[in-house]
Structures are given as structure tokens and as C-alpha cells.
Amino acid sequence: MNTWYVLGIDLGGTNVKCGLVSLDGNVISRTHLATAGFISDKNKLIQALCGACHNLLHENHLKTKNILGAGIGLPGLVDVRKGVVKFLPNIPGWENVALKNIMEKKIKMPVFIDNDVNVITLGEWKFGAGIGIRDLVCLTLGTGVGGGLILNNALYRGPGFTAGELGHIPLNEDGPLCNCGGRGCLERTVGNKYLIEKAQKLFGRRDLTLEEVNRLADRGNPSALKFWEETAAHIGIGLVSVVNLLNPKRIIIGGGIAKAHRHLFPVILQTIRKRAMSVPSQMVQLKAAKLGDHAGILGARVLVDQAIHGR
Amino acid sequence: MNTWYVLGIDLGGTNVKCGLVSLDGNVISRTHLATAGFISDKNKLIQALCGACHNLLHENHLKTKNILGAGIGLPGLVDVRKGVVKFLPNIPGWENVALKNIMEKKIKMPVFIDNDVNVITLGEWKFGAGIGIRDLVCLTLGTGVGGGLILNNALYRGPGFTAGELGHIPLNEDGPLCNCGGRGCLERTVGNKYLIEKAQKLFGRRDLTLEEVNRLADRGNPSALKFWEETAAHIGIGLVSVVNLLNPKRIIIGGGIAKAHRHLFPVILQTIRKRAMSVPSQMVQLKAAKLGDHAGILGARVLVDQAIHGR
């Protein structure tokens, strides 16, 4: 049998998703690792990753020779060329780890690593909401606000592998201080933590979640509707910079609060159309991310294929 | 003799610069056209352009067969693929003009057209302040504030040919209305017109020029120094978006007020280092544009060469 597969690994702060993907983009099998106990113990974590890879092969009656390679998305700065994790802002202990080499020795197959949002962007581009699009931007909304850029039919990473930080576009020169050291960043305004704080204050309830604010808006609650409208306007103004700078054909929006997209998308698009330059704002399309929980695993399939075939 | 040349044309609002460039990037001969009388009469202007091209050949004892092609930079939106000028915001009468075809029939050589700042960016990249740099951003400061992007070793234009509008990065969500329809744009803050207004108010002199404010700063005038410092901080914050989004290796700054770069550059760089993310802001370099008045003509040499040789 000549069928080849890719192992996809999406390393997050609380768990690791692993999957086996066929070359045509079907997730054949999946497994989860809860990493709460040992996320900062990098040797233990690497050992667990290798174990999960072996299990996926074993359960699916596959051998190493059936696997084109493994792709890993990590939440931080990755030197893609050298295969080194430079640092992970939310996971201590990971500094200058030559993860590619270490894993290759252990699992005996080619391993490729990249930033997690870059990997998600590759996935959405080839298998999700961006199929066939030459120039697109992916925005992920969550605790962190991140992004990835496909420009001229290729992932654009920049010389320091840091390109695509949509969450750190400043919205206001004198805005509040952001974790990154900047002021008034998009993430400092619409990152989950700040949205929850704002919603809890607005509704006077300290246990309120953003899911509830979404449901309140679904039922027509005026304060909830206004909350999402203001959130959407901030996101839209952040995207004005992106639209004027990059003239993307499509912007794909994913992540937690993108679930409120019925309330967000119309105002985001309206803000872009009103505030960005007319030609790029008329042509840009907004789409919700399609791959959800599979995005990182499917993106790893693209990462491995592109690395091996030099695209 | 086997030497080839390119004809470079830089069409501005008040005059047209034409030049003959060798393939190694030497400007062999130049000529100017004052267009005050007929800039909006497009047939007359095209006729004058063709006349200037013929004169340049004649004066240099060259024939059409010695010329690889002509490159033209235009101050507006250009469909580079079709060779059509879509519109020029400051020159009425130029809408959907198939300039490439029209010129090719008249001057009997390949003609390529692009936005003027894109052409300048190509020039600085190959012959000026950006030689050998794979990822760079060019910022032009003047009445208009524009930009061009070299990403992954190629000019990035975007699907609608509008990419690189650095002047329309919003600095503040509720900033003053800009000509483009947006609010708080970089151009609305540091475009020459607004800087002159601000300086004239500050010094209480209605005939003050920005050159004078520069000379005052050179002599240590505290108000003039503060004026440039504030201007530089705005430019720096606009560039924070660029640095965080694109992680360029180098930013090249040109145009009128870039002459005040002794007063501008240190604060621009300091603002980027303070406010942009640490990895991309530590690696980015600021350079003054090098080619000055020659940029558009030398850029045309690059435009023609890339179009003919498919780069």
C-alpha cells in the first residue's frame, strides 16, 4: 500500500492535540494529552509527544515508513529554518530547544516545527476557509490575539519568524499598556481577558462568561448587542491597518469569540468599508474559520508537505 | 555594440522626469517636462512623454533596438497586469487608461507601468538603501505619505495593486477625518500639509516652511526640536504596526521631510524599540533613502527587467 500520512501535533498551554492526517486532508485518528502536570518539564513533555506519536501509528497499524513526517505547532517564537523553539511566552523552561533534532532522533522521521498560528493559517488556506486564495490574513481571537499571513501564495514569516502579529497593532497612541510593552494594542482591547473584565463590569456579575454574553445578544439584550458592536468596531479598526497595508483578498477570523460572529462580522466589515481605502476594502472578504479544533493538525499536514517538497 | 538600456519615466503632479538607464543602474541622461499646462489633457501628456522618449534616444545616438523597454511610475492606482491606469487621485481625466498599449504602439518598445512608490521601492531595493535585503518596507513622506513592500525578495502589490499604503495606518480610533475616508491616519498626522499648518500655528508665522523648521532645529531651537520629536513619535507608532505585522529587516524612509532625518530617525527608532514587540523591533534597521531624485528612474529599470525576465 502506497498511502502516506502526516502526524500533526498542536501544542497548547493545557493540552496537546495529536492527529494522523492523510495527504488529501482527512483526519484519520486523533488523540489528546493533558499536560497540566508537566508542561514546563520539557523532557517529560517531549517524551509524552513521542509516546503519542507511537500510539497513533500502532493503533492505526502503520509503520514509520508510512509517515511523510511530523509537523508541530507551538505557541511562541520558532526558528523554522533551524527547527529551534526560541521561547514560549506562557510555558517556562522552553528556551532555545532544538525540538526538530531531538524529535527526529526519537521518532525516526522528518519533523518540522512552526508557530501555532502559522500552522493554523496553513490549514485554513489549504483545507478550510481560504482554499484557492493567493493573499489572505488569518486572525485568531482568544486570550491571545494572533495572526498569520499568506502573501503571493506562500506563508510569510518574516526574517525573524515573527510576522503576522495582528494582536499588537496599536489602536490608539495613548492606549493602555499591553503585555508586549506597546500601548493600545488590539489584543489589549479585545483579548478574552479584557473582554471578560469589561462584560463583568457592564453586567455587574463576576461569574459572567463571554459565551453568556453571546447568548444574551442572541436573545436581543441591548447591552450585550452593544458590547459585541463595540468589540467588532475595535477589531475592524485593527483590520483597517491590515487592509490598507496588505490588500488581502480574504480575512479569516477564528478563535473563541469568533463564535459570536453573527454579532461581530457585520460590524467588522462595515467598519473596514467605512474606514479603510475604497479599493482594498471593497474587495476584501470576511470568513469564519472552518477547521475549528482540526486546524492545527491539518495545518501540520501542509507544513510537512511544503517543507519536504520545497514549497 | 550589445549594451542595453531602459527608459525610465516618473510622472508627477507638476513635472515628468525621464531618464536613460544602463542595465547596471547608471543614469546616462535625463530630461524634464513641465506639465503645468496639460497634465489633465491625457492625449497631450502621452504625446509629450513619447516626444521625451524619442529625444532621449536621439540625443544619445541610440535606436529603439538598443532599449529593453520603458518603465513608468504613476501617482495613483495602476493595474500592473493589464497595464491600465485605474485612476490618479490628483490628476483628473485619467481613468481606466490603457497606457501600456497606447505607449507601446507609439514608441515601439515594451512598456511597463506601476504605482510611483512601488517603482521607487524597486529602485531603492536594487540600487539604493535596500541592496541585498529580502524583506523591507519603504516609507515616503511628503504631501502624500506612501509606501512599498518587498517581501520574500519580491515587490508585494496585493490582488488589487493597492498594498503598501503606510500613510493610511490609523494612529487613533477617533482621530481627525482623513481624505481617504478613514480617521487618524498617519498621512492625516504627518503629511506635509498638516505639518506645515501645525508649525505655522506653533511659531505664529504664516510663511514658515518645513525647511525652516528643520534649520531652526539644527540650531537647537527648543520648539522646533519638540516639533520634530512629536512628528517622529507619530511616524514611529505608525511603524509599530508595520514592524509587528511584517517583521521587516529594514525600513527605508524617503521624501521631503526625511531631510530632517537627523531630528527624526533617533526618535522613530526609539519609539519602535519601545512600543513594538521585542524580536522584530530589535532586528529592524532604519535607513534614509539614497536615490533621491533618481529613485523613480532607477526603479523603472528594475520594473522593466523584472517584467521581461519574469521575476
**What fraction of the residues of chain A are assigned to beta strands by DSSP?**
15-25%
Mean pLDDT of chain A: 94
- Summarize the biggest pleated sheet of chain A: 5 strands, mixed
Order of helices and strands of chain A: EEEHEEEEHEHEEEHHHHEHHEH
Q: Cα-atom Rg of chain A, whole angstroms?
A: 20 Å
Helix-strand category of chain A: alpha/beta
Total of domains of chain A = 2
What is the share of helical residues of chain A?
40-55%
**Second-tier CATH architecture of the largest domain in chain A:** 2-Layer Sandwich
Describe this structure in words.
The structure is a homodimer of 311-residue chains. Helices cover 40% and strands 23% of the residues of chain A. With 311 residues, chain A is an alpha/beta fold. A five-stranded mixed beta sheet of chain A has the order 3-2-1-4-8, sandwiched between helices. Chain A has a five-stranded mixed beta sheet with strand order 11-10-9-12-13, with helices on both faces. In chain A, helix 1 packs across helix 2, helix 3 packs across helix 10 and helix 6 crosses helix 7 (222-246). The longest helix of chain A is centred in the last third of the chain and has 25 residues, at 222-246. The mean pLDDT of chain A is 94. At the A-B interface, strand 10, helix 7 and helix 9 of A face strand 10, helix 7 and helix 9 of B.
Which descriptors would you attach to this protein?
Nucleotidyltransferase, domain 5, five-stranded mixed sheet, 10 helices, homodimer, 13 strands, 311 residues, globular
